[in-house]
Design brief:
Number of helices: 6
Largest sheet: 5 strands, mixed
Oligomer: single chain
Distance between the termini: 216 Å
Number of strands: 19
Helix content: 10-25%
Radius of gyration: 54 Å
Shape: elongated
Strand order of the largest sheet: 3-9-8-5-6
Strand content: 25-35%
Order of helices and strands: HEEEEEEEEEEEHEEEEEEEEHHHH
Structural class: alpha+beta
Length: 363
């Protein structure tokens, strides 16, 4: 081959190497989401542009600078090893891409550091890219002494449903069901999981729950953990599962509104005013003065008073107005006074009466 041909082959080899060599600061899975950085190193106070591809469309992502982490192991310390105060949120477009300018800040733990990108809601997805914070301390990663490693093998689900008490504001309860497998080299005994519940975009509230049992290397187990919310909770919640400082799965949970509480307050607002109205009307009816058709006189009546006055002869009208008491053993027909007056015809006993006979011959 001529020298010119060899030179051309060398040039094409260099071009192909540049095309297929990953860019510095890029972490991408073969068929998963990827993260790309505009700079692989920057100092505190500066900024870098973080872009990504292969994410779920319209997904809400959180971008953090984390220490004591590498892409192969993720972020073992969880978000506690990240600069959470300077994190940034971004939403992917319809093609699953994003680009965001992020300030550089020192994480609370030494480097090696990564730029950690993870979904906030929905199906869990995350990716890391190597990043060096200039001037920040660098220490070796702690040895991974745990030979057992758990991984979720199936999708998580929430079993259970609400009842009548939940409809009236009782705490909603469910059971988080999932299957894990031990992909490590030693047994996992009585693993302790962190179960978190988050309302909307707020940070989850974690609760430790221990599962009793042993999972051997290469084995799997079906695990059920109870989940409970506060009384009267409603809306969109997210249940997160964490083990060993790493979030294994997330499950959305839509909690209905406790309409029984609303119905109770509506009834209270209707019944209480009606009862107060009835009580008020009863009190008013009790204390108001009563008016009758005739005015009652205080003291003796006029005819009775006239009969008691000396030298006063009441008129016939007064006698007629005063009722005459009737003795119980006399009736108008059996009155002896009335009967004696009707025994003989009326006559005049006067000596001058013309009808009185006289004796003749009397001297």
């Amino acid at each position: 081959m001529s020298p010119n041909g060899k030179a051309r082959v060398a040039v094409w080899a260099a071009v192909l190497a540049l095309l297929f060599t990953p860019l510095a600061g890029t972490a991408a899975a073969a068929d998963g989401p990827s993260v790309k950085l505009s700079k692989s190193q920057a100092g505190t106070g500066g900024s870098i542009t973080v872009s990504g591809d292969g994410w779920r469309e319209r997904a809400l992502l959180m971008i953090l600078v984390c220490g004591q982490a590498v892409p192969s192991r993720g972020v073992p310390g969880g978000t506690n090893s990240c600069a959470n105060a300077d994190g940034r949120a971004v939403t992917t477009d319809s093609a699953g891409r994003f680009s965001k300018k992020v300030p550089v800040s020192e994480p609370p733990v030494p480097c090696p550091c990564v730029v950690h990108v993870a979904t906030v809601t929905g199906t869990k997805a995350e990716a890391d890219a190597i990043f060096q914070v200039a001037g920040h301390a660098v220490e070796p990663l702690p040895a991974d002494t745990s030979g057992g490693r758990l991984s979720v093998l199936t999708d998580t689900r929430l079993d259970g449903s609400g009842g009548l008490l939940t409809w009236f504001g009782a705490p909603p309860t469910r059971t988080l069901v999932f299957t894990v497998g031990n992909i490590g080299t030693s047994d996992v005994k009585n693993p302790v999981f962190q179960v978190g519940t988050a309302h909307g975009v707020f940070a989850p509230q974690w609760d430790e729950q221990q599962w009793r049992g042993t999972i051997r290397p290469g084995g799997k187990a079906r695990i059920e953990l109870p989940v409970e919310l506060s009384g009267g909770a409603h809306g969109d919640y997210t249940v997160s599962l964490e083990y060993g400082g790493k979030v294994l799965a997330e499950q959305p949970w839509g909690v209905g509104r406790p309409w029984g509480v609303t119905l109770f307050w509506i009834l209270v607002c209707l019944v209480v005013p009606a009862a107060l109205f009835r009580i008020g009307m009863a009190v008013v009816d009790r204390i108001r003065p009563r008016h009758t058709g005739t005015v009652r006189r205080r003291g003796p009546r006029l005819p009775e008073l006239a009969l008691r006055l000396p030298g006063f002869k009441p008129s016939t009208a007064a006698h007629a107005a005063t009722p005459t008491p009737t003795l119980p053993w006399f009736t108008p027909d059996a009155d002896p006074g009335a009967a004696g007056g009707r025994l003989s015809a009326p006559h005049d006993d006067s000596p001058t009466s013309p009808t009185t006979p006289t004796r003749e011959g009397t001297t």
